[in-house]
Amino acid sequence: MTEMVYGAVPVRDGEPILPKWWRTIDKWAMSCILLLFAVGMLLGLAASPPLAAKNGFDSFHYVQRQAVFGVLAVIAMVLTSMMTPIMVRRLAIVGFLLSFVALALLPFFGTDFGKGAVRWYSMGFASFQPSEFLKPGFVVVAAWMMAAALEINGPPGKTWSFALCISIVLMLALQPDFGQACLVLFGWGVMYFVAGAPLVLLVGMAGLVVLAGTFAYSNSEHFARRIDGFLSPDIDPRTQLGYATDAIREGGLFGVGVGEGQVKWSLPDAHTDFIIAVAAEEYGLILVMCVIALYAVIVVRSLLRLVRERDPFVRLAGTGLACMFGVQAMINMGVAVRLLPAKGMTLPFVSYGGSSVIASGIAVGMLLAFTRSRPQGQISDLLGRGRAR
């Protein structure tokens, strides 16, 4: 019915799903995603052998595991990108409910793996971090609620989505995981802004975030320690930020050479949170700029395609996914160069981690599904038809 009203472009009847998917998908964005995964494998070869040797594994143990995770992520991405927006919404609702329950049960059954924050479930052979899978599901569910609120006599979806957002942020802050909490709040704020939120309200929310940060600084030793380390004019060379800063400085423009970097032997999270420091040391600023360009292409192309989208749900959900994806990458790299306090956040598709890679595959699969070319005509066609009447 929508296609009939808006003057849809003719659809090829009986077209097989694969050719139709290939014709409508954003090939540039998908190519950049695959290149990011390839960069992650390359950096994994450099960063993970020291950790494997420390834990008594084969040198490429973590690389092989990352390859398995990557294959699963690519399969999830492709399958999800073939779905219609309605199918994506249904998948997101189920995934969100399961992840929300898993997040709520973390204090009782979760583990911190000695890192001071209960964020994972240990399954023996692997671990599972529910917050990674919660993020894309929350974005789509919140977008659905906001889009429903835009309809005539629609429900108070914006209020519902805000209540849901706050409940998630509180659960994440109690782990504590302030980085993911800020990312969820940011994703909701972007969608709320696109849905037509008053600027005064957004400024008020920013003030509340500052107050919440002040409260957390006064009552959380974990949070205060990271903020103090970030604000300190001197960097302790024995800390993660100290090692990362030295590595980036040593790398310069072209790097010290493949396999010649030393930071991977000192940083405990060189293969996850600080993998960009390994890239900067061994391959230099050139590779770092290429990685930044790949993330920028994915986000910008997605937003440009969403600008032409007339379905409010698709526009809101796609915008939230694209912005959250890009900001997570910015936070990870910003921490490594000391532009932001340490957050414990992975670099999508590049850092090691099964939950991170597979959840990123599902998230970008949803984004690719929302940005596929669909027969909806041009806005000028609709305006021209209104004048003709």
UniProtKB/TrEMBL annotation:
It is an enzyme of class 2 (transferase). The chain crosses the membrane at residues 28-47, 67-87, 93-113, 133-153, 159-178, 190-217, 283-304, 316-337, 349-370. The gene is ftsW. Keywords: Cell cycle, Cell division, Cell membrane, Cell shape, Cell wall biogenesis/degradation, Glycosyltransferase, Membrane, Peptidoglycan synthesis, Transferase, Transmembrane, Transmembrane helix. Belongs to the SEDS family. FtsW subfamily. This is Probable peptidoglycan glycosyltransferase FtsW. NCBIfam families: ftsW. It holds the Pfam family FTSW_RODA_SPOVE. PANTHER family: CELL CYCLE PROTEIN, PEPTIDOGLYCAN GLYCOSYLTRANSFERASE FTSW-RELATED. The keyword Transmembrane helix applies. It is a multi-pass membrane protein. Its main location: membrane. The lineage of its organism: Bacteria, Pseudomonadati, Pseudomonadota, Alphaproteobacteria, Rhodobacterales. It is found in: Cell membrane. GO terms for cellular component: cell division site; plasma membrane. GO terms for biological process: cell division; cell wall organization; peptidoglycan biosynthetic process; regulation of cell shape. Its EC number is 2.4.99.28. It catalyses: [GlcNAc-(1->4)-Mur2Ac(oyl-L-Ala-gamma-D-Glu-L-Lys-D-Ala-D-Ala)](n)-di-trans,octa-cis-undecaprenyl diphosphate + beta-D-GlcNAc-(1->4)-Mur2Ac(oyl-L-Ala-gamma-D-Glu-L-Lys-D-Ala-D-Ala)-di-trans,octa-cis-undecaprenyl diphosphate = [GlcNAc-(1->4)-Mur2Ac(oyl-L-Ala-gamma-D-Glu-L-Lys-D-Ala-D-Ala)](n+1)-di-trans,octa-cis-undecaprenyl diphosphate + di-trans,octa-cis-undecaprenyl diphosphate + H(+). Pathway: Cell wall biogenesis; peptidoglycan biosynthesis. GO terms for molecular function: lipid-linked peptidoglycan transporter activity; peptidoglycan glycosyltransferase activity. The keyword Chaperone does not apply.
